[in-house]
Amino acid sequence: MSPKGNKSGRRPPFRGRGEGRQPPRERRPDGAAFRHSRPSGEGWLYGRHAVLAALANPERKVRRLVVTSEGLAQYRAEIERAADAGSRKSPRPTPEIRGRADIDRLVGEGATHQGFALQADPLPEWAIEDICRRAADRPKARVVVLDQATDPRNIGAVLRAAAAFAAEAVVMQDRHAPPVGGALAKAASGALERVALVRTVNLARALGLLKEAGFWCVGLDVRADAALGDTDLSGKIALVLGSEGEGMRRLTRDSCDLLARIPMAEDWESLNLASAAAVALYEAFAPRPARRDKS
């Protein structure tokens, strides 16, 4: 359905091919399916929250844990609890005591590492059909879809908001996407270990697969007639956000079921990506029926 055909905010009946039907597996342009193996890597995560969350994640293969003597003294109990939680699949790491200058050299000058660094392999990759399957028995599943998001700190902050409001996943296009490394993990403040991050070659097709799985795709657009708070956000929802400068691309916008805006002061133009995602997720997480028109 074209977004222009439904400006009232009312949600028509779902007319997809059924939530029980599994969508076809999305493939890359070369025909290969998305990888789910754990690739080896030499990447460093940094920042206390990001490091402790990754250390506690049994899906992470941890290689080295480096902390300052001050960090180990102050957070020894938290480090031990995290290491215990993550030791089911990965050997328990022995903390290496290093100075801040040494950690700077490991993670990069200027990184706010707080005296914590962790060398670990990347997490397994997710595909959009994995999210569709996982949400099959979750009638209030929430997904955030980012079009043309390229700043790792912005994406990390969106992941943090997604974790706060129990979203299933953050989906972004593979092209021009930043690496899932230290800057993104630091901004996510541990949410990278809790919320699935999906990279997809074709964002419009990903939205189509979500719709086939019963998701209602709501695009945020400052020019939309409908206010987000007056929009029916019950059931499975995919919130679609564009870049701060250009917004959603036309094909992404046309793939949405409905466009809605976040009301703001007349003399203010827009919110940044992470703030808009947090507001939208709050509306979807705690909808207010009294503000909806379902007549």
Strand order of the largest sheet: 7-6-5-9-8-10
In the CATH classification, which architecture of the largest domain applies?
3-Layer(aba) Sandwich
Report the order of strands and helices. EHEHEHEHEHEHEHEEHEH
> Structural class of the secondary structure composition?
alpha/beta
Instruction: Please give the domain count.
Output: 2
Average pLDDT rating:
84
For the biggest sheet, the summary is: 6 strands, parallel
The CATH H-level homologous superfamily of the largest domain: SPOUT methyltransferase, trefoil knot domain
Rounded to the nearest angstrom, the distance between the terminal CA atoms is 20 Å
What is the count of β-strands? Answer: 10
Q: Can you describe this structure?
A:
This protein has 295 residues and is an alpha/beta fold. It folds into two domains: 44-120, Ribosomal protein L30/S12 (60s Ribosomal Protein L30, Chain: A), CATH 3.30.1330; 125-290, SPOUT methyltransferase, trefoil knot domain (Alpha/beta knot, 3-Layer(aba) Sandwich). It contains nine helices and ten strands. The strands form two sheets. A six-stranded parallel beta sheet has the order 7-6-5-9-8-10, with helices on both faces. The protein has a four-stranded mixed beta sheet with strand order 1-4-2-3, sandwiched between helices. The model is unreliable at 1-5, 12-41 and 290-295 (pLDDT under 50).
